[in-house]
Amino acid sequence: MLCIVFGLSLLDRTNISAAYIAGLGADLRLTIENRYNIALLVFFIGYGLFELPSNYVIRRVGARLWLPFLIIAWGACVLGMGFVHSWKTLTVLRALLGVFEAGLFPGAVYIIGSWYRQFETAKRVSVFYMAALLASGFGPIFAYALSLIRVGDGMFRRGWRWIFIIEGIATIVVGFIAPFFLVEFPEKVKFLTERQKHIAVSRVTMEKKGAHVEHATVKEMLKMLADWKLGVYCLQYFIAASSVYSLAFFQPIILRQGMGFSYAKAQLLSSPPYIFTVFASLAGAWVSDKIRMRWPILVGQSVVAIVGLIIVLYGGPPGVRYFGLFLATWGTQANVPASLAYGQNQTARVQKRAVVAAAMISIGAAGGVTGSSIFQAKDAPQYLPGMWATISMQILYSVATFCMSMHLKRMNKLADQGSRPALEGVEGFRYAP
């Protein structure tokens, strides 16, 4: 159910790019004064601000109540976009969409981190993210089909409206169904006995007996945020998110304007790179858990992204550049769940995992602002500044990840030798570099 809901979430936040080339851009005059960029980036204001408060609420209210409320609310926003006549109204709805979508991703990662142990998480987070990505990978094809709908002689003859209307209704329906299928946190579920609940909670906490606290206070959360390592995890996720959003928002436009494909081909060719990415990323996550190391996979995927982006820029024939898009999509998308798993694996306490997930994804919202603004209409068709900004950030990602992992490896060695106190304040805990 988390996969289905997150798939709709990705679909609903990125379908604006499909609507744009289906007539939204012309009808609302989004090419004037960077209106399209503004409509994209306002999403991330609320998205960034409400991540941490949402993870504070979800453990107290419960996932089966909180998440369906958010799903129905953002579905209503998407539905409303099908009826807009002004770019300002579209922008307001995009801002509200960010507020309501904010709680899903960190909440889902928090739930997964509450059920699975250190070297069990990469596969699970990747399956969650990639299954959703597979659904959204078919988004451009689905959007193309919806854009062909024509009803009456008025505004409903515009196909882009039906992209928002149908997808908004689908999200609302799923929101009403979700409470029957979503799984709660281990201590809240009804299908386990009290003993089983104790085992489920104990197996993921590396803490001493009696040290487990169900809810962190605001003061404790602020103390957790002061950990300098969290800054590195946030940098990783900022880069991963900005790269993903820049490609998601502008890939159909690059295919249409940059590579010269027709409208129909640009929509249809947007999906195969995502489908390839799903299988390649799951393979990387499996290898990472198998070898019990994170950094070789993270850095390797970042290098693949760099190579792919350079091919997209300088590959020459459209076919070669399109191959580069496969590599770029894989390298950038795969490091989103991998970076989240990396942050969760370096965190011993379950309460702190909620803060780490929310903080990382909040900073990812700033990455979304970057990703939605570095590709400017004036730079078409190659979008040279945006492409090189993305390449530069991926280089920084590789360097930062390698250096951080070597530091964590050294801390593990010192702890093994007994020359350091308990890592993360928990006896027996070791980082997963």
TrEMBL record:
<keyword id="KW-0813">Transport</keyword>
<dbReference type="InterPro" id="IPR036259">
    <property type="entry name" value="MFS_trans_sf"/>
</dbReference>
<feature type="transmembrane region" description="Helical">
    <location>
        <begin position="387"/>
        <end position="408"/>
    </location>
</feature>
<feature type="transmembrane region" description="Helical">
    <location>
        <begin position="65"/>
        <end position="87"/>
    </location>
</feature>
<dbReference type="Pfam" id="PF07690">
    <property type="entry name" value="MFS_1"/>
</dbReference>
<keyword id="KW-0812">Transmembrane</keyword>
<feature type="transmembrane region" description="Helical">
    <location>
        <begin position="230"/>
        <end position="251"/>
    </location>
</feature>
<dbReference type="GO" id="GO:0016020">
    <property type="term" value="C:membrane"/>
</dbReference>
<feature type="transmembrane region" description="Helical">
    <location>
        <begin position="127"/>
        <end position="149"/>
    </location>
</feature>
<keyword id="KW-0472">Membrane</keyword>
<feature type="transmembrane region" description="Helical">
    <location>
        <begin position="322"/>
        <end position="342"/>
    </location>
</feature>
<feature type="transmembrane region" description="Helical">
    <location>
        <begin position="35"/>
        <end position="53"/>
    </location>
</feature>
<feature type="transmembrane region" description="Helical">
    <location>
        <begin position="354"/>
        <end position="375"/>
    </location>
</feature>
<feature type="domain" description="Major facilitator superfamily (MFS) profile">
    <location>
        <begin position="1"/>
        <end position="409"/>
    </location>
</feature>
<dbReference type="GO" id="GO:0022857">
    <property type="term" value="F:transmembrane transporter activity"/>
</dbReference>
<dbReference type="InterPro" id="IPR020846">
    <property type="entry name" value="MFS_dom"/>
</dbReference>
<feature type="transmembrane region" description="Helical">
    <location>
        <begin position="295"/>
        <end position="316"/>
    </location>
</feature>
<feature type="transmembrane region" description="Helical">
    <location>
        <begin position="93"/>
        <end position="115"/>
    </location>
</feature>
<dbReference type="InterPro" id="IPR011701">
    <property type="entry name" value="MFS"/>
</dbReference>
<protein>
    <submittedName>
        <fullName>Retrograde regulation protein 2</fullName>
    </submittedName>
</protein>
<feature type="transmembrane region" description="Helical">
    <location>
        <begin position="161"/>
        <end position="183"/>
    </location>
</feature>
<keyword id="KW-1133">Transmembrane helix</keyword>
<feature type="transmembrane region" description="Helical">
    <location>
        <begin position="271"/>
        <end position="288"/>
    </location>
</feature>
